[in-house]
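Lecture notes, unit on protein representations.

Consider one protein chain, 362 amino acids long.
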Amino acid sequence: MGGARYGDPVISAAAPLLATIPSPDRGVWHLGPIPIRAYALCIIAGIVVALWWGERRWIARGGSKGAVVDIAVFAVPFGLVGGRLYHVITDNQLYFGEGKNPLNALRIWDGGLGIWGAIALGAVGAWIACKRKGVPLAAMADTLAPAIVVAQAIGRLGNYFNQELYGDHTDLPWGLEIYERIDAAGNRDLLGGVAVGHVPLADSPVHPTFLYELLWNLGVALLVVWADKRFKLGHGRAFALYVAGYTAGRFWIENMRSDAANHIFGLRVNVWVSLLVFAGAVVYLVLAKKKGPRESPESLRGNDAEDPESTVDTVDSAEEPDKKVDEESADVTAGAPASDSVPDSAPDETPAGDKGKVEGGQ
């Protein structure tokens, strides 16, 4: 390693490659004994952005303030567990078998979240929360769809710091340089180590497939926002469009990745999942159109439909109906003409029912 030591200033061992994208020298920093992981920070940042934007979209559609955060209390933990379970199940050889430590399956901070499991189990958490709040799950899903895919894009930055999820060697100008990393003892540690001297790995530069997915996700977010505004999508159709758009991109990006993965009939597992989920999303997108216009703003308020202040006013009015009628009668009498200006024998030509409607409408 040219005599360089862990923690030494980074000095390039070769001429700078201006036509490539350099990787960060590390993905973990230490605040005393506490590791600060870029991957975790990116996941958290994505969740925060999704909650902020989702809340704004929900309120704009007529929903109550704070509903998205209430849903997230259930959906986010469920999603994290689901994402990890999917990863562990589909890449079980990394954690189980001879020489493997099953407890490493709990080390979520080392990376490894499957979006399919995160969405599936996250939806279960969201369903539970929506039932508790009395709001339609489909409308909430439509509202959060573009925010979720933007959160995915932000999360992909964590793969950049971890030097993972990239493709084969490339000579394209945007090729990604990946470096050898070592730990404090001088041992190879591509995830938690430091790139002392920026020594490139054998396949470097490579296709930054995580970057391709990041950009694709942002494009899907724009598509969903445009379509939702243009066609007033409801009943889960905006969410279905997001799923279809994401899986369409994931299909070709997954085929470019060079990291180890399980295969079925020669294709990576995630490629098959992309195909199946894409087909299901398209079918739902078409069939859900029969459900008619999108949900009304009133239906989005759920248990928050009655404003507390309005409820108090309603109760007060109900307790004193006679007083209110007397006051209205007094106002009408005060403004009426003298009794001798109207013959006592003049018939009242307004039917009782219609008269009540006129007064009530005021």
